[in-house]
Amino acid sequence: MTHHTRKKESKTPELTANDIFGTVYLKNASTDVWGYWKEIGERGETIYSLKSFKSRGNTMKNNQIYLFEGSEEDQRVHFLRMKGLGCTLNELKTHRERIGTYINDNSDRFFTSDEISQKLSINKKYTDEVLRELAKDKNIDKKGLPSTGGRPKYAYFAITKVF
């Protein structure tokens, strides 16, 4: 189902879930809710954005924005990257595997996010996200480090299997 949006209160082109007309009813009744809009990039190119507002099946991360470039004339688009991560879908799969393999291959060591980011030359913000997901999915384990103020830091390590 496609639906129209309310008039924007702000000047930014990015959609929020509240921009959808009839938000409460539509969002509650839907399995997945997406926003799609276009904006002009810094070099004058048209960039199409797709954002997941709701994913009941958790197949997509909520509030993640996917950027596409394409043709205004025929409306065809192709994937550029995920906003905020600076990587393509292929890199996303490859980096996740690299991080998981690196930790599991060095099962006698503990790693911080900074160490892994530097060692594998992967964006720090993305490394943090992958480590949280790998730990949540029980592919690796984590242990809290002493507080230095701010967001808690963790040491990540391989899960040792006992038979």
Outline the biggest β-sheet.
4 strands, antiparallel
CATH class of the largest domain: Mainly Alpha
Number of helices: 4
Between the first and last Cα atoms, what is the distance in angstroms?
51 Å
Rg measurement, Å? 20 Å
CATH fold group of the largest domain: Arc Repressor Mutant, subunit A
Give the low-confidence spans.
none
Can you count the beta strands? Answer: 6
Q: What is the fourth-level CATH superfamily of the largest domain?
A: Winged helix-like DNA-binding domain superfamily/Winged helix DNA-binding domain
The computed structural class is alpha+beta
CATH architecture of the largest domain: Orthogonal Bundle
Structural summary, described in words:
With 163 residues, the chain is α+β, with helices and mostly antiparallel strands. It has two domains: 17-82, no CATH class; 89-157, Winged helix-like DNA-binding domain superfamily/Winged helix DNA-binding domain (Arc Repressor Mutant, subunit A). It is built from four helices and six strands, in the order αββββαααββ. It has helices at residues 23-29, 89-105, 113-120, 124-136, and strands spanning 32-40, 46-55, 65-70, 77-82, 141-144, 154-157. The strands form two sheets. Strands 1-2-3-4 form a four-stranded antiparallel beta sheet, with no helix packed on it. A two-stranded antiparallel sheet has the order 5-6. A hairpin with a 6-residue loop joins β3 (65-70) and β4. This is Possible NAD(P) transhydrogenase beta subunit. InterPro entries: WH_DNA-bd_sf.
